[in-house]
Design brief:
Blueprint (H helix, E strand, L loop, with lengths): L1 H7 L10 E4 L9 H10 L4 E7 L13 H11 L4 E7 L3 H11 L3 E5 L6 H10 L3 E6 L17 E5 L15 H16 L6 E5 L7 H7 L3 E4 L10 H13 L1
Helix pairs in contact: 2-3, 3-4
Bound molecules: D-xylitol-5-phosphate and zinc ion (ZN).
The site of zinc ion has 6 residues, from β2.
Amino acid sequence: MQVLRTALLSERVRVRGMHICPSILTADFCRLGEVVEEAIDAGIEWVHLDVMDGNWVVNKTITFGPAVVRSIRERIGPEVFLDCHLMVTNAAQTWDQYVDAGVDLVIAHIEAVDDFPALIANLHGADCEAGLVMNPATGLEDILPLLPDLDLVLVMSVVPGKGGQSFMPEVEPKIRALRAAIDVQIAAGGRATKLMIDGGIKAHNIAQVQEWGIEASVIGSGLINDNASIADNLAEIQAALRA
Ligand code: DX5
Ligand code: ZN
């Protein structure tokens, strides 16, 4: 089902194959349902949910947990693809709460999980896609051996903790190396692991990261802000991809 849903993501919001995945961290949380619906009305088909537990991120902030994820899933229905980015100390113990709440993909930090292969197996056993996310300073050594089993790798281009931070271009070599490894894997008949980026992506740099090999971009403050509607911000981002 999840695989089918991903395959069905329309070309409408995938200019030259790039998925645009809003992060709702800069939304007014009293209006969360309306904001997500506004994004969907603008054509969004993949929403990124940033879970922070008040402990794992450097700024010790709390966002929301499974109850809010469940409410979003119930509000938007089954068709929109939902991922949760777990910035928590105990992803290996709590992943199932997010699967139960209705996400299609759980993305856990390599830095926070001791036995990542076990987590991947658990997620796949629960019919959920498995994603791995790495901080800007984390190297690829421990990640490349996991690639054959991962549905997605997310490279953080800010230190996780809040929206609206500046993009860190120094992640370029890591992204290019992952792109090359995934392309080799696909050419050998292996899994088409998706490559995603998160942090500081806006109209001015999205074409650049696409050229590095990114196919899914998380965008928070660049989409949900006081300057313009989500539809207008999305149009600007899509225009940058077409340019
Ligand atoms: C950062 C989160 C991101 C972030 C994206 O810790 O994982 O998803 O909020 O927001 P922008 O696009 O504003 O950097
Ligand atoms: Zn995120």
